[in-house]
Amino acid sequence: MVRESFFRHSMLSIALFSICIPAGEACTTVLVGKAATVDGSTMIARNEDMKTAWDKRFVVHPEGQNTPNSMYVSKGNGFTYPLPLVHYKYTATPEWTQKDGQYEEAGINQFGVAMSATESARANEKALKADPLVKNGIAEDSMLTVVLPYVKTAREGVERLGKIVEQKGAAEVNGVIFSDKNEIWYMEIGSGHHWVAVRVPDNSYAVIPNKLCIGEINLDDSQHYLASPGLIVFAEQKGLYNPKKDGNFSFKKAFGTEDAHDKQYNNPRIWDGQRILTPSVKQDVDAKQFKIFQVPDKKIAVTDVAKVLRSHFNNTPYDPYGRYQGKFRPINVAYTMESHILQCRPNMPSAVGCVHWISLGVPETSVFIPFYSGILSTPQVYQQGTDMPDFKSAYWTYRRTGALTTPYYHPYMEKYTQPQLEKIRQQVRDTFKNNDQEVLAMYQKNPKQAEIYMTEEGKKLSATALQAVQQLNAILLKQMTAQTPVQHDSNL
Predict the structure, then answer these.
(1) Which residues, at least 6 apart from 293, have a Cβ–Cβ distance to it below 8 Å?
(2) DSSP track, 309-329
(3) Residues 6+ apart with CB under 8 A from 467
(4) Fewest CB atoms within 10 Å of the CB: 22, 323, 355, 432?
(5) How far is Cα 49 from Cα 332, in angstroms, rounded to an integer?
(6) Which of 215, 205, 310, 207 is nearest to 254 (CA)?
(7) Which one, of 210, 182, 214, lies nearest residue 198 by Cα?
(8) Which residues pair with 175 in a beta bridge?
(9) Which residues are marked as active site?
């Protein structure tokens, strides 16, 4: 996430997470290859972190046509780019206001291509001096909107975004993720015009914080690596890479960072994610180097990805809710606005096989609701809300759960919040699983009828979960009132 103009902390989040959070550096990404999952699906996921009170929405853009010579214009930095005549249907999670840009962030299009943008990062000063960022180049606010509706495969997504960066320049250093049911591509933009992308190994996963992580690349292997033209030659000419001294070219070594900030802010999140998914590999939390791709000890399910996204060093000495007061930046933080898991399952039409799991607010105190990418619209409560609390929008319903739990975190989480949320989550998963085969059979017979049905079922499922969360919020509020000190004789 990059949003310097938006960046503020609530006093509560500062108290809980006494970590220096630089403006423009947030989010954590999880990627899982198809041979590493329980059902052969690809999964890309990310916590979108920036503010504690900033409504995110979930919408569907139908397929349609742009006007001839249509030009995209960013309200954030003035970036412009010509758009094709036809734009495909896609889901997205935009801001409640577009005055500073759309920030659509994550979605799945009608061809089963999923995209999540962006994982903010830093480049070293030497790289940025050699190829400065472009003030009105492409940035996070525009990225999904100008790419996802116009590609049919994950690889095409990388190629389209790469071309834009080469032509118009990049305004930020970012990581961007593309997937379809066959493969996942992870892309990093390291300077104004240079980028690299790697195909995620099918048998592996990655947990990526706010840093450039792609190491050695082999550009002779175009099936697994893509990059901006002349990348390695440029790096050598500008003194970012010395073949005699450095050996094989490493993108993160040439363009990235590895400093005290990474040791405190970034690397521990890799450690935490790999601790959860590959506990057999013993590593130090303050290690300088971690493998970008790791093989899990067992096949990974959506619930495992959700566990990583909810983690704040749970059951370790580094949990900021414990005595250890937040030396390291956790994955789950108070300023997560939404979290998503974009799952593309094999052997199914993309409208049914691709699922947009979305959790509004902080993942630990929220629920991932699954929506088929073939839905025609989203529930109205997912299209409401602003930066001021309300009692209607889905965002503020889930955000309220965290706000009510946090002041009495340990007793409330153990007695009320965690047990009730787990019941809701299990009910959501069971309902989705029970509906799945019916939806698939219906789609194979009558796609249009199935789209209507999956749309209505998504609304019902989300409404059931929200109602249960509202009941939990009422319990939490009632318990909070009992915490107020009272000088009162109950006999009078």
Answers:
(1) 200, 201, 204, 205, 206
(2) HT-SSTTSTT-TTSSS--SS-
(3) none
(4) 323
(5) 9
(6) 215
(7) 214
(8) 119, 188
(9) 27
* More reliable by pLDDT, 240 or 482: 240
The span from the CA of 140 to the CA of 170, in Å, is 10
In 3-state terms, what secondary structure has residue 437?
helix
DSSP reduced 3-state for 368: coil
Which runs of consecutive H residues, i.e. helices, occur in 63-181?
125-130, 140-147, 154-168
Which run of H or E residues covers position 473?
A: helix 447-481
Give this prediction's pTM.
Answer: 0.95
Strand (E) positions, 221-302?
225-227
CB distance 190 to 169 below 8 Å? no
User: pLDDT tens for residues 426-438?
Assistant: 999 999 999 999 9
| Angular region, 252: left φ>0, alpha ψ -120 to 50, beta rest | alpha
Q: 336-344 and 354-360: which strand pairing?
A: antiparallel
Residues 6+ apart with CB under 8 A from 65: 85, 86, 87
pLDDT digits (tens, 9 = 90+) for 11-27: 333 334 334 444 346 89
Q: What is the largest CA-CA distance in the chain?
A: 87
Judge residue 18's burial from the number of C-beta atoms within 10 Å of its C-beta, 0-12 exposed, 13-18 middle, 19 or more buried. exposed
